[in-house]
Design a protein that fits this description.
The protein has a domain at about 100-165. By secondary structure, it is α/β, with parallel strands linked by helices. Helices cover about 30% and strands about 25% of the residues. The longest helix has 16 residues, at about 180-195. β9 and β10 form a beta hairpin. The strands form two sheets. The protein has a six-stranded mixed beta sheet with strand order 6-7-8-3-9-10, with helices on both faces. The protein has a four-stranded antiparallel beta sheet with strand order 2-1-4-5, with helices on one face. The N and C termini lie far apart (about 55 Å).
Amino acid sequence: MTEATFNPAVIEMSGVNIAALRDASFTVVENVDWTVLPGEFWVVAGQQHSGKSDLLLHAAGLMSPVRGTCRMFGSDTREFDETQIAERLRVGFVFADGRLFNQLTIAENVALPLRYHKNLTDAETARAVEVLLEILELAPFANSTPGSVASSWRLRVALARALVLKPELLLLDNPLGGLGARHRHWLLNFLEQLARGHEFFGGQKMTMAVTTDDLRPWRHSQRKFAVLHEGKFSVLGAWDGECFTSHAAVKDLLSAPQEFNP
């Protein structure tokens, strides 16, 4: 029996020091202890430049910790190479800026993971993309390029691309940033469907972690919360838990001015 069998954690960080992506010599968060179990929905909050994006990149195995151990599905992310590609494909990552290819159509952007990692015919790939674009209300834009649609729709394209391989873990970096009210409402509802089990994924609950600098939209009794503050990572637990309400950083994260996006 393997170590991963004994350890059900999807993400497990132990004593992790996290370096900044833009300067690997700078430790932005120290001594992170964080365990994410299957089916959990985590919200990690913090002010700008607190290390939220860097934390997610480490959780996804895209960066290695300066110190400590980070495991994903039981595998040490320091050892990730081409032989661990199957583990990497169990994770979907949505970058804050989308990271889309403007020379490709929206349908082609979403199809990229399938073309790289699945041995499908062109017809099978096209059908899988078509179904996902319908679910995310992107079908009218299938033949458009990302630069020709509004930024709120581009986030959905990035989300579709992250979901097309049907990952077990979905990580989203500040997904509500810059969205108008309509798109915020849609995304929050859709992520809740994923958390409960969406039929596109066989009804299986999806494990998720999102980052934010505004806690208010994420209030939910079934979610777990953590905060990054002054270089430290603190687990807050449930929304109404004692640790949540007593943490010094929570007040600021609950009182940030609402963005207006028509």
